[in-house]
Every structure is written in structure tokens, then in C-alpha cells.
């Protein structure tokens, strides 16, 4: 407790970025809810672009059209 | 909103079939609940046959016995 | 196989709409992948508006601002 | 994309704490991965203490024994 | 590690049965994989009968027809 | 009904161990809740060590430090 699942499209997330996500989420649980990091589990799940649908379309197709998930 | 996870055994689902699943589920959310496709996310998760259990048995073993998940 | 989870904000989805979602998703698995309906499980999970975040904000707050998830 | 599920034991998490969790996780996705907040969904799932098991025991029983999930 | 989610229809599962499920799953992780119980989390999620679909139908309807999930 | 997801770190779980997990969990549902094995689905999800965080750290780093998930 707590358990956090992060689902992301598989687009080159680096090991350092994964470390930052894990540390950031764990710290957030401590800072907001005072949860013990030794009880906090985080799982990152990368999803192939063919397997994520948005707006009725595969993300792989959206990417072929130049549409990204980056902050505007 | 909404977010739909489709978990399937990994048995040769094609890119076109995945597109049909994503479009079909997204359209269903719109037709039944009037949800905006731009807010609808669909994730397909393919599971290895060794990793799916049914009736206490691995699906890989069931397939070796000729048992499929096809509509009768 | 397959197993489908539909996560929705808790905003008055009726029993009939749930039946339509379950039937629609199950039929989709059969039509696209020829899956046996007797092996297809669908779970609907309604989420309180305070518990769903989008764009860094709680959906309950977005609704207070008149922002809906309806198709434009 | 991304989609983040936060599962927590149901122990009085306030609306403000949920807002802080949603904002914190969404900001983390932007800061680490440059993800657009308008594509980032966060779902908080509170779990009854009888329904969360840790160390082979129900958390409700652990709490009766004075064992908490707080940071030491 | 590991994290186990048990999803069940909401049909009167007692506190003792939940304890048995949690203990049984945790022991299984230790016996089969030698996992430390202090690292094993189990979450039980009860689903309303209207919200679980099987064979294209709501389980609530199946129950009204006398169809149960009991072992034959 | 029921549907059980077992998430594990990807550390050489053998086919036989997966069979034992599937059989053990399915039997548990029958013994405790009298559930029909033909309605019980189990999915095992193995997670890369870089993708599982515990105590704010990646499990891959913990393993490099000689820290395991084995029962003490």
C-alpha cells in the first residue's frame, strides 16, 4: 500500500526516466499521504503503439501522421 | 474517460484486427454513452499462452490438447 | 479469454446502458476475433468524479466548470 | 497516454489530498516525459482494509494491531 | 513484488473468506516462488452483478435465471 | 468470475512454477468460494526489473545491491 501502475506508450523511455518516475511517485505518496516508501510499489507498463487506441485510432497511425503526445 | 483494457491471449491478432477492436470499442462508448472519442483510451494487452490460466490449466496446454477459444 | 475492463466516470450509467456495453464488447470480440462469448468476461468499473484526474485536475472540478466528456 | 492507476487503502484520503496526487502525478509525466496533461489520465482506487492483504494478513487486522503504513 | 488482484462478483464473500484468500495466495507465492510475505500484496475487488458481463449478458440477469458460478 | 491477475518481477519463473500458480489459485477459489474452475481465469504478468519500483528505487538496482524478494 500504495500500489501505482503507470501505463505509457512504448516510445524510448530511458532507464533514468523510469528511475525519476518511480522516485517521483514514491515521494509524492510520502509527501501527500505520509506513506512509507518501503510499502510503496510502482509498476511501469510500456504499451506498443499498435496496442494503444486514442480517438478511435491506433497511436502508431497517429504517430505516422505526425501527431505526438508531447506537451504543446 | 473512458479507459478500456482488452486482455487477449497472444494468438496472432493482426494490426487490422487491433484497429477494428479499437474503433469498435471507441464507437460503442460514443453510441451508448455519447463519450467524446478524443477522451477515450483503449489498451490491448496480449498475454502469452503460458501466462493465461483457465480451468486450472495453462492455455498453452489446452491448445496442445486442441482446445481453442473460438466460438463453437 | 478475452477479459475486458471498462473504466468510466460515475455519472448515471443506467442498467440498460451497461447491458449494451457488455453485449457490444462481447459481440465485437466474436465478430473481430471469433471468440466464444462463453469465454468472454467484461467488467465495468465506475469511478467517482473526485477520483478521476484529467489535465491535472479532478473531473469533479471540471464538471463544476461545465466541462463534460460528451462528444462535441 | 499516459494512464496512471493509484491504489490506496481507504483511510480518510481527503479531496485536497486527491487533488494533490492528481496534480503531482500529472506534473511528473510532463516534467520527466514531456507528456501533454490533456492526454494524461489518473485514477485513484480506494480499497477497503478488509480487501487489502499484506504479509498474508488483512490490513484491517494489522490496523487493529496498531500497525500503520505511515513513514517511520 | 508480487502484487495479486482478485476480482470477484459481489455475492456475500465473508471477512473470513477474504482472510483465507489473502493467506492462501500469499502462502502460494512463498511455496512456489519463495517470495517474502512482507513483500506480497493482495487486493480483492468485488464487482456488482450488473457490472460483470459473461457470455454477453450481465451476471445479475444470469442469477435471475438461476445460473450461478458455483462448481458443478 | 473470478479473474485473478498475478504481477511478478521477471526473474526466471519456470513453466512448471506458472502451472503451480495457476492451479493453486484456481483451487483456492474453489475451496474457499466454491467457484467453478471453468469460470476462473488467471493471468500472470511478468514485469522487467527496471519497471518495478520499491522504496523509491528500481528493483534492478536493488538486485545489483544484492537485495532480493526471497523469504528471509
UniProtKB/TrEMBL annotation, chains A, B, C, D, E, F:
E.C. designation(s): 5.3.2.-
Pfam families: Tautomerase
Domain 4-oxalocrotonate tautomerase-like per the UniProt entry, residue ranges: 2-60
Active site: 2
GO MF, any single term: isomerase activity
Keyword line: Isomerase
Family affiliation: Belongs to the 4-oxalocrotonate tautomerase family.
Protein's UniProt name: Tautomerase
Amino acid at each position: 500500500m500504495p500500489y501505482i501502475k503507470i501505463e505509457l506508450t512504448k516510445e524510448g523511455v530511458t532507464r533514468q526516466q523510469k528511475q525519476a518516475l518511480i522516485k517521483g511517485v514514491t515521494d509524492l505518496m510520502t509527501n501527500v499521504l505520509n506513506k512509507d516508501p518501503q510499502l510503496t510499489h510502482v509498476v511501469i507498463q510500456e504499451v506498443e503503439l499498435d496496442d494503444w487506441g486514442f480517438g478511435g485510432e491506433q497511436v502508431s497511425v497517429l504517430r505516422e501522421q505526425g501527431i505526438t503526445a508531447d506537451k504543446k
